[in-house]
Amino acid sequence: MFWGAISPYELVAFKRVNGYQNSNSYEKMLEDCLPAYRQKFIEEHGRDICFQQDNASCHVSGQLMDFFDREQMYTLRHPPKSPDLNPIENIWGLMKQDIARRAPMNEAELCQFVKEAWLERTTGPKSAELLMSLFNSMSARIEAVILNGGNRTKY
């Protein structure tokens, strides 16, 4: 499994997750990348980040809510099973298409193709335009989910 984080401007983090991820391992991963990136973002853009994640149990546990409280980090809450609000789901979808076209033959090749697809989608020639367009669609995404009663939307 892989975990990634993006901002409107760049790749934040990308990691391979070995085995099962629990609240402890997820918190450690966030501690390793988020505080430093958040500080950099505030310095460069003059505003704070809003961290968004899916509703996996290790992401919304009391332990993780305590982490976000300690860090005084705002998180966007959304309905369960609602990938519509998370721009990174669009990146994962594009990556799946990229990887399927290459037809990896084994796990090592699959992992290599995943890394290459991630870099292409987050640092490649058209990545800045893609990331900004995904983040610029957030208001419309939120409005669509609200209007649709928390159910799936076109996003």
UniProtKB/TrEMBL annotation:
Tc1-like transposase DDE domain residues: 4-105
GO molecular function terms listed in the Swiss-Prot or TrEMBL record: nucleic acid binding
Protein name in UniProt: Tc1-like transposase DDE domain-containing protein
Species assigned in the record: Hypsibius exemplaris
